[in-house]
Write a structure and sequence with these properties.
Protein name: carbonyl reductase (NADPH)
Enzyme class: oxidoreductase
Number of strands: 8
Distance between the termini: 38 Å
Structural class: alpha/beta
Order of helices and strands: EHEHEHEHEHHHHEHEE
EC number: 1.1.1.184
Number of helices: 9
CATH superfamily: NAD(P)-binding Rossmann-like Domain
Number of domains: 1
CATH architecture: 3-Layer(aba) Sandwich
CATH class: Alpha Beta
Helix content: 40-55%
Keywords: NADP, Oxidoreductase
Radius of gyration: 18 Å
Largest sheet: 8 strands, mixed
Strand content: 15-25%
Strand order of the largest sheet: 3-2-1-4-5-6-7-8
Shape: globular
GO molecular function: carbonyl reductase (NADPH) activity
């Protein structure tokens, strides 16, 4: 039996780092790959965790916006471990409220990281999931808030249990185009780039869970989206209500659901509780 392995994206600081630490504390039996775009920051984070007693943490470079980078990681996992047991797609970004970039640019950049980057990692790594694997896509409660601000037509599409991945991708592209022409609200979109990208992540998770159920029904794989809450990170700022460790609780809970568990699956989970979509 190959050694178990978990991958956490965007893990050199903030919630991602706290998730890696949480997996260690929860006694994850295997290696934990802390991935980050910047090699030095990633190596420093691993060194810090090792000094705290997390001996099973390894660094691997990953830029989620570079499809080749995801494929390199897949090759490494196949060669060294023969598969993957836990994937936590945590990497993401948001512009500050004070950002001066045009909204269309903010929409394109945020979508490329939060939605397309997550999708590319999943396309590379979901095919090598082992039975009883756990996948957690870090979304946000803002996805639900933003969904409620969409036109009824868009809401119906995003709530459609049978929505194909291709159609979701087209919708995310349509939002960016509408944002670039300044007509996104006229077309029924909310006035938030971050929130719309996280609608994409939540709906993508529902689609991926459905596909896994259809294509690997007996394998016991569980895939969910989650909201860590409002967490004190570089992204959310110092006034947020939760510490990174508190923000990591729900992702770690979903990543360590016991073997044989049937649910949650394909859900948006917040404070370990399934939210209505």
């Amino acid at each position: 039996m190959s050694k178990r392995v978990a991958v956490v994206t965007g893990a050199n600081k903030g919630i991602g780092l706290a998730i890696v630490k949480g997996l260690c504390t929860a006694g994850f039996n295997g290696d934990i790959l802390l991935t980050a775009r910047n090699e030095k920051l990633g190596q420093d984070a691993v060194a810090g965790l090792k000094s705290e007693g997390c001996k099973n943490v390894i660094f691997h470079q990953l830029d989620i916006c570079d499809q080749g980078s995801s494929l390199k990681l897949k090759k490494f996992l196949e060669e060294k471990y023969g598969g993957l047991d836990v994937l936590i797609n945590n990497a993401g970004m948001a512009f500050k409220h004070s950002a001066t970039e045009p909204f269309g640019e903010q929409a394109e950049v945020t979508m490329r990281t939060n939605f397309w980057g997550t999708l590319w990692v999943c396309h590379a790594l979901l095919p090598i999931l082992r039975p009883s694997a756990r996948v957690v896509n870090v979304s946000s409660f803002v996805s639900k808030k933003s969904l409620d601000q969409c036109s009824p037509e868009l809401q119906a599409k995003f709530r459609n249990k049978d929505l194909p991945e291709e159609e979701l991708c087209l919708l995310m592209g349509e939002f960016v185009q509408a944002a670039q022409t300044g007509d996104h609200t006229g077309q029924g979109w909310p006035n938030t780039a971050y929130g719309t990208t996280k609608i994409g992540v939540t709906v993508l998770s529902r689609i991926q869970a459905r596909v896994l159920t259809e294509t690997r029904p007996g394998d016991g794989i569980l895939l969910n989206a989650c909201c860590p809450g409002w967490v004190r990170t570089d992204m959310a700022g110092p006034n947020a209500t939760k510490s990174p460790e508190e923000g990591a609780e729900t992702p770690v809970y979903l990543a360590t659901l016991p073997e044989g568990a049937k649910e949650p699956h394909g859900q948006l989970v917040w404070d370990k509780t399934v939210q209505e979509w």
